[in-house]
Amino acid sequence: MQALEIIPYSSSLQPHFESINKAWVTKYFSLEPFDIDQLEHPEETILAQGGEIIFAKVGEDILGTVALIPKESGDWEMIKMGVKESAQGKGIGMALGKRLLELAKQKGARRVVLYSNTKLEAALRVYEKLGFTHCNLECGTYGRCNVKMEFVL
């Protein structure tokens, strides 16, 4: 098997960012307006805000992606982590998460938060293995989320 690479965003990868994330969101939930905006226009909604998007690549195949965005509080948020269904369970989410936390540290983050849902059991296990811990969920942040986790750097 070819080696897993973690690569940064380029405009040619936008369709992968969109399709990988739309696949899991629509499987379990429905797309919210902010999802569509971030997935279809990541350069404006994520990168121009100081965020990052990275991808997991094996050979020529893009298998997963995740993004990091700054929050008004000074925290950073992990968003849009997705791995193609055919590639799940192979450590790709873990590799993406580790690299994302490195990027957050380089940006001077003191804390990274994420929002998820108890339906996404495998994802929650990855976040816990990365060192995220459960914390209080404030009301109404995202319609589909019933879990908030944090990683203190």
From TrEMBL:
Chain ranges of the N-acetyltransferase domain: 4-153
Keywords per UniProt: Acyltransferase, Transferase
PROSITE patterns: GNAT
Pfam families reported in the protein's UniProt record: Acetyltransf_1 (PF00583)
Domain of life: Bacteria
A GO MF term: acyltransferase activity
EC number: 2.3.-.-
InterPro entries attached to this UniProt entry: Acyl_CoA_acyltransferase, GNAT_dom, NAT_camello-type
Xref: CDD domains: NAT_SF
Record-linked SUPFAM superfamilies: Acyl-CoA N-acyltransferases (Nat)
Presence of keyword Lyase: no
Protein name per Swiss-Prot or TrEMBL: GNAT family N-acetyltransferase
Organism, scientific name: Algoriphagus aquatilis
